[in-house]
Design a protein that fits this description.
Elements (H helix, E strand, L loop, with lengths): L2 E5 L3 E3 L10 E2 L10 H4 L3 E6 L9 E9 L4 E7 L7 E2 L4 E3 L3 E9 L4 E8 L8 E5 L10 E8 L5 E7 L6 E2 L1 E2 L3 E6 L3 E9 L8 E5 L8 E5 L9 E8 L5 E7 L6 E2 L4 E3 L3 E9 L4 E8 L13
Amino acid sequence: MEKFAYESPALLTFGASAPGICNIDCSTDDICSSSADEFGEDIEIRVSGNPTKWAQKATIEAKFIGYSGEIVDRKYSIDGKKTWLDYTGALSFTQNVSVFFYAADNAGNQKTKSVDVTKVDSVVPTITVSGNPTAWTKNDVVLTVTSDDNLSGVKVQEYSFDQKKWTKVTGSTASGTLTVSGNTIVYFRAFDNAGNQSEIVKTEVKKIDKDLPAVTVKGNPEDWVSKAELTAVFTGTPSGIAEKKYTLDGKTWKTYTTDVVVTQNGTVSFRVTNYAGSTATTSVSVTKVDSVAPTISTS
Protein backbone atom coordinates (compact mmCIF):
# COMPACT_ATOMS: atom_id res chain seq x y z
CA MET A 1 0.00 0.00 0.00
CA GLU A 2 1.19 3.52 -0.79
CA LYS A 3 2.02 5.88 2.08
CA PHE A 4 1.47 9.64 2.72
CA ALA A 5 3.68 12.02 4.81
CA TYR A 6 2.86 15.36 6.54
CA GLU A 7 5.42 18.01 7.52
CA SER A 8 5.00 19.83 10.85
CA PRO A 9 3.21 22.13 11.22
CA ALA A 10 0.53 20.45 9.08
CA LEU A 11 2.77 20.47 6.05
CA LEU A 12 2.09 17.89 3.38
CA THR A 13 5.19 16.40 1.74
CA PHE A 14 5.96 13.52 -0.50
CA GLY A 15 8.91 11.17 -0.63
CA ALA A 16 11.43 11.64 -3.40
CA SER A 17 11.01 8.16 -4.83
CA ALA A 18 7.80 8.89 -6.71
CA PRO A 19 4.90 11.41 -6.70
CA GLY A 20 2.19 10.42 -4.28
CA ILE A 21 4.29 7.87 -2.35
CA CYS A 22 4.49 8.75 1.35
CA ASN A 23 4.88 7.41 4.88
CA ILE A 24 1.28 7.21 6.16
CA ASP A 25 -0.98 4.39 5.04
CA CYS A 26 -3.71 5.57 2.69
CA SER A 27 -7.20 4.27 3.33
CA THR A 28 -8.47 5.21 -0.12
CA ASP A 29 -6.96 5.65 -3.54
CA ASP A 30 -8.09 9.32 -3.57
CA ILE A 31 -5.72 10.29 -0.74
CA CYS A 32 -2.68 9.07 -2.63
CA SER A 33 -3.73 10.34 -6.05
CA SER A 34 -2.08 13.82 -5.67
CA SER A 35 0.69 14.45 -8.14
CA ALA A 36 2.56 17.29 -9.79
CA ASP A 37 0.65 16.67 -13.00
CA GLU A 38 -2.76 17.24 -11.36
CA PHE A 39 -1.73 20.45 -9.57
CA GLY A 40 0.38 21.72 -12.43
CA GLU A 41 3.26 22.56 -10.09
CA ASP A 42 5.90 20.78 -8.07
CA ILE A 43 5.65 23.02 -4.97
CA GLU A 44 2.68 24.89 -3.59
CA ILE A 45 2.86 27.65 -0.95
CA ARG A 46 -0.43 28.32 0.77
CA VAL A 47 -0.68 31.56 2.77
CA SER A 48 -3.45 32.35 5.25
CA GLY A 49 -4.18 35.08 7.79
CA ASN A 50 -3.89 38.12 5.55
CA PRO A 51 -6.76 40.34 6.78
CA THR A 52 -9.31 41.64 4.31
CA LYS A 53 -10.70 44.08 6.87
CA TRP A 54 -8.75 46.56 8.97
CA ALA A 55 -6.99 44.94 11.93
CA GLN A 56 -4.39 45.92 14.51
CA LYS A 57 -2.09 43.11 13.45
CA ALA A 58 -1.83 40.31 10.92
CA THR A 59 -0.74 36.76 11.69
CA ILE A 60 0.48 35.23 8.45
CA GLU A 61 0.96 31.49 8.21
CA ALA A 62 2.50 29.65 5.27
CA LYS A 63 2.14 25.97 4.38
CA PHE A 64 4.68 24.49 2.02
CA ILE A 65 3.51 21.48 0.01
CA GLY A 66 5.82 19.39 -2.12
CA TYR A 67 4.32 17.26 -4.90
CA SER A 68 7.53 15.98 -6.49
CA GLY A 69 9.89 15.86 -3.53
CA GLU A 70 10.35 16.58 0.12
CA ILE A 71 10.44 20.24 1.17
CA VAL A 72 13.92 20.87 2.53
CA ASP A 73 14.10 24.67 2.69
CA ARG A 74 11.50 27.20 3.86
CA LYS A 75 12.30 30.89 4.06
CA TYR A 76 10.69 34.32 4.07
CA SER A 77 11.76 37.90 3.39
CA ILE A 78 10.26 41.26 4.36
CA ASP A 79 12.81 43.56 2.73
CA GLY A 80 12.18 42.86 -0.93
CA LYS A 81 14.05 39.52 -1.08
CA LYS A 82 17.32 41.04 0.08
CA THR A 83 17.46 39.10 3.33
CA TRP A 84 16.00 35.63 3.72
CA LEU A 85 15.14 34.19 7.11
CA ASP A 86 14.22 30.63 8.05
CA TYR A 87 10.48 30.15 8.33
CA THR A 88 9.67 28.32 11.56
CA GLY A 89 6.07 29.32 12.18
CA ALA A 90 3.39 31.97 11.86
CA LEU A 91 4.57 35.56 11.40
CA SER A 92 2.97 38.49 13.22
CA PHE A 93 2.99 42.00 11.73
CA THR A 94 1.80 45.29 13.23
CA GLN A 95 2.38 47.28 10.07
CA ASN A 96 1.75 46.78 6.39
CA VAL A 97 4.43 44.89 4.55
CA SER A 98 5.14 42.73 1.52
CA VAL A 99 6.14 39.22 2.55
CA PHE A 100 7.97 36.84 0.21
CA PHE A 101 8.02 33.11 0.86
CA TYR A 102 10.47 30.64 -0.65
CA ALA A 103 10.49 26.86 -0.71
CA ALA A 104 12.77 24.23 -2.24
CA ASP A 105 12.45 20.45 -2.35
CA ASN A 106 15.07 17.74 -2.55
CA ALA A 107 14.31 17.28 -6.23
CA GLY A 108 15.71 20.72 -7.00
CA ASN A 109 12.36 22.44 -7.47
CA GLN A 110 11.92 25.98 -6.12
CA LYS A 111 8.93 28.20 -5.53
CA THR A 112 8.47 31.83 -4.48
CA LYS A 113 5.23 33.51 -3.48
CA SER A 114 4.55 37.07 -2.30
CA VAL A 115 1.77 38.42 -0.11
CA ASP A 116 0.97 42.12 0.36
CA VAL A 117 -0.33 42.94 3.83
CA THR A 118 -2.32 46.16 3.40
CA LYS A 119 -5.00 46.14 6.08
CA VAL A 120 -2.95 46.55 9.25
CA ASP A 121 -3.23 49.70 11.36
CA SER A 122 -1.66 49.63 14.81
CA VAL A 123 -1.29 53.41 15.15
CA VAL A 124 -3.78 55.13 17.45
CA PRO A 125 -5.75 58.07 16.04
CA THR A 126 -5.13 61.60 17.26
CA ILE A 127 -7.84 63.76 18.81
CA THR A 128 -7.99 67.48 19.58
CA VAL A 129 -10.59 69.63 21.31
CA SER A 130 -10.98 73.35 20.69
CA GLY A 131 -13.42 76.08 21.70
CA ASN A 132 -12.89 75.94 25.46
CA PRO A 133 -12.93 79.63 26.45
CA THR A 134 -10.13 81.22 28.43
CA ALA A 135 -12.22 84.31 29.21
CA TRP A 136 -15.49 84.37 31.11
CA THR A 137 -18.70 83.97 29.14
CA LYS A 138 -22.42 83.98 29.96
CA ASN A 139 -23.23 81.79 26.96
CA ASP A 140 -23.14 78.08 26.24
CA VAL A 141 -19.77 76.78 25.08
CA VAL A 142 -19.45 74.83 21.83
CA LEU A 143 -16.51 72.43 21.87
CA THR A 144 -15.20 71.26 18.50
CA VAL A 145 -13.76 67.75 18.44
CA THR A 146 -11.48 66.70 15.57
CA SER A 147 -9.74 63.37 15.05
CA ASP A 148 -7.30 62.08 12.45
CA ASP A 149 -6.06 58.67 11.37
CA ASN A 150 -3.84 58.26 8.33
CA LEU A 151 -4.46 54.54 7.70
CA SER A 152 -7.81 52.95 8.49
CA GLY A 153 -9.55 56.26 9.17
CA VAL A 154 -11.59 57.48 12.12
CA LYS A 155 -14.62 55.34 12.91
CA VAL A 156 -16.21 57.23 15.81
CA GLN A 157 -15.65 60.03 18.33
CA GLU A 158 -17.15 59.75 21.80
CA TYR A 159 -17.52 61.87 24.93
CA SER A 160 -18.23 61.10 28.56
CA PHE A 161 -18.71 63.01 31.80
CA ASP A 162 -17.69 60.09 34.02
CA GLN A 163 -15.59 57.80 31.75
CA LYS A 164 -18.24 55.12 32.20
CA LYS A 165 -21.05 56.06 29.85
CA TRP A 166 -19.78 57.11 26.43
CA THR A 167 -21.86 58.90 23.79
CA LYS A 168 -21.15 59.55 20.14
CA VAL A 169 -20.14 63.12 19.32
CA THR A 170 -22.63 64.83 17.00
CA GLY A 171 -21.21 65.41 13.52
CA SER A 172 -19.14 63.42 11.05
CA THR A 173 -16.94 60.52 12.09
CA ALA A 174 -13.83 62.72 12.32
CA SER A 175 -15.26 66.12 13.28
CA GLY A 176 -18.11 67.10 15.56
CA THR A 177 -19.31 69.45 18.27
CA LEU A 178 -20.57 69.26 21.82
CA THR A 179 -22.50 72.11 23.45
CA VAL A 180 -21.86 72.59 27.16
CA SER A 181 -24.25 74.76 29.16
CA GLY A 182 -22.37 74.82 32.45
CA ASN A 183 -18.95 74.32 33.95
CA THR A 184 -17.98 70.66 33.85
CA ILE A 185 -15.27 68.15 32.92
CA VAL A 186 -15.68 66.29 29.65
CA TYR A 187 -13.62 63.36 28.38
CA PHE A 188 -13.16 62.65 24.68
CA ARG A 189 -11.80 59.66 22.76
CA ALA A 190 -11.74 58.33 19.21
CA PHE A 191 -11.53 54.91 17.57
CA ASP A 192 -10.23 54.08 14.13
CA ASN A 193 -11.56 51.34 11.86
CA ALA A 194 -8.94 48.90 13.13
CA GLY A 195 -10.15 49.29 16.72
CA ASN A 196 -7.29 51.45 17.99
CA GLN A 197 -8.30 53.95 20.67
CA SER A 198 -6.84 57.42 20.93
CA GLU A 199 -5.67 58.92 24.16
CA ILE A 200 -8.47 60.21 26.35
CA VAL A 201 -8.51 64.00 26.27
CA LYS A 202 -9.75 65.66 29.45
CA THR A 203 -11.35 69.06 28.91
CA GLU A 204 -12.36 71.19 31.87
CA VAL A 205 -14.85 73.92 31.07
CA LYS A 206 -14.68 76.46 33.89
CA LYS A 207 -15.35 79.89 32.40
CA ILE A 208 -19.13 79.83 32.13
CA ASP A 209 -20.94 82.26 34.44
CA LYS A 210 -24.66 82.59 33.83
CA ASP A 211 -25.43 84.07 37.26
CA LEU A 212 -26.58 87.65 37.54
CA PRO A 213 -24.82 90.05 39.89
CA ALA A 214 -26.90 92.16 42.24
CA VAL A 215 -26.84 95.56 43.89
CA THR A 216 -28.76 96.81 46.92
CA VAL A 217 -28.88 100.40 48.19
CA LYS A 218 -28.94 101.62 51.77
CA GLY A 219 -29.29 105.12 53.20
CA ASN A 220 -32.37 106.45 51.41
CA PRO A 221 -33.91 108.63 54.15
CA GLU A 222 -37.44 108.23 55.35
CA ASP A 223 -37.37 111.53 57.26
CA TRP A 224 -36.37 114.93 55.93
CA VAL A 225 -32.64 115.54 55.72
CA SER A 226 -30.42 118.14 54.11
CA LYS A 227 -28.54 115.47 52.22
CA ALA A 228 -28.61 111.71 51.74
CA GLU A 229 -25.66 109.38 51.70
CA LEU A 230 -26.48 106.30 49.64
CA THR A 231 -24.42 103.13 50.15
CA ALA A 232 -24.46 100.50 47.41
CA VAL A 233 -23.75 96.85 48.19
CA PHE A 234 -22.62 94.92 45.14
CA THR A 235 -22.91 91.13 45.04
CA GLY A 236 -20.71 89.32 42.56
CA THR A 237 -20.86 85.98 40.78
CA PRO A 238 -18.22 83.28 40.08
CA SER A 239 -16.56 85.48 37.48
CA GLY A 240 -16.28 88.40 39.91
CA ILE A 241 -17.26 92.04 39.68
CA ALA A 242 -15.79 93.89 36.74
CA GLU A 243 -17.50 97.25 37.09
CA LYS A 244 -19.48 99.34 39.62
CA LYS A 245 -21.28 102.45 38.37
CA TYR A 246 -23.91 105.01 39.40
CA THR A 247 -25.76 107.88 37.75
CA LEU A 248 -27.64 110.89 39.11
CA ASP A 249 -29.18 111.99 35.84
CA GLY A 250 -29.76 108.69 34.06
CA LYS A 251 -27.27 109.62 31.37
CA THR A 252 -23.77 109.94 32.75
CA TRP A 253 -22.42 106.89 34.56
CA LYS A 254 -19.63 107.34 37.05
CA THR A 255 -17.45 104.79 38.82
CA TYR A 256 -18.70 103.97 42.28
CA THR A 257 -15.92 104.11 44.88
CA THR A 258 -17.69 105.32 48.03
CA ASP A 259 -21.07 106.53 49.30
CA VAL A 260 -22.98 108.77 46.90
CA VAL A 261 -24.02 112.10 48.43
CA VAL A 262 -27.38 113.33 47.18
CA THR A 263 -28.39 116.97 47.81
CA GLN A 264 -31.58 117.07 45.81
CA ASN A 265 -34.45 114.74 45.25
CA GLY A 266 -34.45 112.54 42.23
CA THR A 267 -33.70 109.04 40.97
CA VAL A 268 -30.27 107.54 41.58
CA SER A 269 -29.35 104.36 39.71
CA PHE A 270 -26.59 101.86 40.47
CA ARG A 271 -25.24 99.26 38.05
CA VAL A 272 -22.98 96.27 38.51
CA THR A 273 -21.35 94.21 35.74
CA ASN A 274 -19.51 90.91 36.12
CA TYR A 275 -16.65 89.58 33.97
CA ALA A 276 -19.02 87.42 31.96
CA GLY A 277 -20.83 90.54 30.77
CA SER A 278 -24.01 90.21 32.82
CA THR A 279 -25.36 93.39 34.44
CA ALA A 280 -27.87 94.33 37.10
CA THR A 281 -29.30 97.76 37.84
CA THR A 282 -31.10 99.09 40.90
CA SER A 283 -32.71 102.53 41.13
CA VAL A 284 -33.92 104.39 44.20
CA SER A 285 -36.12 107.44 44.36
CA VAL A 286 -34.89 110.02 46.85
CA THR A 287 -37.78 112.18 48.06
CA LYS A 288 -36.80 113.39 51.55
CA VAL A 289 -33.88 115.70 50.82
CA ASP A 290 -34.23 119.44 51.36
CA SER A 291 -30.97 121.32 51.06
CA VAL A 292 -32.53 124.76 50.57
CA ALA A 293 -32.35 127.05 53.62
CA PRO A 294 -35.61 128.56 54.70
CA THR A 295 -36.23 132.31 54.21
CA ILE A 296 -37.29 134.76 56.86
CA SER A 297 -39.29 137.86 56.10
CA THR A 298 -39.84 140.84 58.42
CA SER A 299 -42.55 143.39 58.34
